[in-house]
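Explain this protein:
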Amino acid sequence: MENLQDELSQFLKEANLDEKKAKMAAIEKKMATPEFWQDRQQSAKLSKELAFLQKETEDLKKLQDLVSRGKKEEFRKLREKLRINFYLSGKYDQEEAIFAIHAGQGGIEAMDWTAMLFRMYTRFFEKKNWQWQLLEKTPGEEAGFKSVALTVTGAFAYGLLKAERGVHRLVRQSPFNADRLRQTSFALVEVWPFLRKTSAIEVNENDLDWSFFRAAGHGGQNVNKVSTAVRVCHRPSGLTVSCQQERSQAQNREKALEILKAKLLAIKESAQQEKLSVLKGKYQVPGWGNQIRSYVLHPYHLVKDLRTGWETQDTEAVLDGKIEPFIKAYLKKFGKLGKVEKEGTK
């Protein structure tokens, strides 16, 4: 019991329970004012944050109850489940995410690999009970996707998905040639925080280049008879956003502009270019030597993260969306709390 009490005290200190209670009180005070509900997006965001804080404090009370009853195993299981949230203390970690996958070196193989990653991540989103919405999808000529982009909504979506940005490498027997030769292909994952409150950003229409085209189906065929898909390029920043999933050109134009403003706001709120690289993740050519993780399906089965050393032979489970152990390993090594722990061991 004494050891459990010590573990609980240390954990409550890490959890900053008093700070959480103060945040809850501040949000509740704002919610009591009439003007709070006039900004729908901000009120929805703060209401969601309050619900999350309430759930966290309830879980912390459960921990205290488990200790008082001497339930060691249940205590440690719940503690580890809660502990991952303490690594997510970055400014944008609680935001939604803009998530994109691009085929790299490997031709048809890389496009098929992009589709496999898209399936893996959407399965992960389902396991997390997150919502996602397709923004743009460019099919490959024969298989898979050249690129795919979406928005992801869920608790700490950006904070967790930022662990996935970088080059992903696949080694397998090719299903696209008769000799079943071993092939290596690459895909790049990019992640941005999706900051919906973009009123601080004014975009000059003269700085925008718009193009309109027909939404493409699998194999590249046009699925609409009219040009509903849009692409906008912001000349000063070089940012380009495409959107083709809404039913009308006007809706796609509105969505593309919203995404562009979110990216521009992320840049504006970054004091230096280096901070922008932290938000988006430094661009890497999706090819040899740049991978963050390797997925080997032949001649043996292994998925290994080269940044953390975390690995598993259960490739089928990983490709079916079981990637949380990789994310946790990344956050423990590179998250804010992870850095503190590492410094504390020196």
The two ends are 30 Å apart (CA to CA). The chain has three domains: 2-87, 96-195+272-344, 205-268. The CA atoms of residues 121 and 321 lie 6 Å apart. The first helix runs from residue 2 to 15.
